[in-house]
Specification:
Two copies of one chain form a homodimer. The first copy, chain A, is built from 13 helices and no strands. Chain A is an all-alpha fold and 207 residues long. Chain A has two domains: 47 residues, Homeodomain-like (Arc Repressor Mutant, subunit A, Orthogonal Bundle), CATH 1.10.10; 140 residues. In chain A, helix 2 runs antiparallel to helix 3, helix 2 crosses helix 8 and helix 7 packs antiparallel against helix 13. Chain A is elongated and about 65 Å long. The interface between A and B is large, with 53 and 53 residues. The structure holds a DNA duplex (18 and 18 nucleotides).
Amino acid sequence: MTKPADPESNLSTEEKIKRAATEVFAQKGFAATRTRDIAEAAGINLALLNYYFRSKQKLFDGIMLEKLQELFGRIAPIFTDTSTSLEKKIETFADSYIETLIKNPELPLFVLSEIRTHPESLTQIIQIGELFTTSSFAQQLKARRPEANPLHFIMCLLGMTVFPFIAKPLLKSKAAMDDASFNILMTERKQLIPMWMDSILQNPVQS
Amino acid sequence: MTKPADPESNLSTEEKIKRAATEVFAQKGFAATRTRDIAEAAGINLALLNYYFRSKQKLFDGIMLEKLQELFGRIAPIFTDTSTSLEKKIETFADSYIETLIKNPELPLFVLSEIRTHPESLTQIIQIGELFTTSSFAQQLKARRPEANPLHFIMCLLGMTVFPFIAKPLLKSKAAMDDASFNILMTERKQLIPMWMDSILQNPVQS
DNA sequence: GTCTATACAAAGATAGAC
DNA sequence: GTCTATCTTTGTATAGAC
């Protein structure tokens, strides 16, 4: 009685706005979303949105920060862990990251799109650069294949893992792919990508 | 005298508007660009923009179609060519596509971003689905590795090739990467990607 | 074809009552 | 805290002179 069943109604107004905004922003991008739409989706008045968050920009910034953390927060601990092998890192990454992306398939394209048009969104966020250049993962790659820039292999791993999710709108509309079969394919990749990375990282036969 | 040296001044007004629009749209996306900005960038009056193109939307549609053709028109002939081997296709693709992307690095993220928020942009364009499922390339992949969905390998190839360009804003801002060294890396990948794809496509040792 | 001036609509933000 | 009503700005599009 005091706690109604409807989970939405329990949320604070601030939280309701934030959730509605997250959804609308993800769907239309920052520029195309109207604060009025957010207010409507949240079931509240437009004025209230400006009461809680000072402006559309401030509301967006908060959400963007959360998304960035969802997207990169998961990579960092895996890549910097000095106690795991190269192979183990790749395996853990593929498994856990694909799992995350299946649950949030629109995340990468949303974040990258907004970074493109507002590079300052990145100012907030952490040391991503380190992951690419000085992390334990980068060092192990350099040790394994000293002749090549470790970035090459990182781009392979990320590309093979993330790209399908970025291209998903294309697949859905042009290859008649539905969510279920897409997810099956992605799940298969949890095993496939580590195998493929192994092949790639194999030192070529001495010639 | 009759042909001034400045290449810009030679262009028709229509063409000047189109070029300016291409640039501004690519930078800010459809929703965030103002027709006034385009007019200013083109060095003409706002009214003139509406004289040549009936609306912002129509102007955008024309540009988007061009971009889609730039992006996919190059893949189609390579993937559908029945006279070339699997290896040759991969080699040709990597070489020619990376070349294109170095000249238009913002192309993939721009197109994919706009597709995300306006899936109807794709309605115009050709049979991309075929490339993924029934093209000569897909058939050759299926013949080589019958146990796996050919899409897996296509996603690998596209991911390894295109993803770095999509992630470029990130690399520039977070890995302190400038255009010159980025392009060097990409050029290296023209040779590396075919090698890697060969490794991936190698049938695993019988176990 | 090109301009100036302006109409018209939409969107972000605020004032003030309750 | 929440609403209604309104201000201000910005953006698309058009009218009409040259």
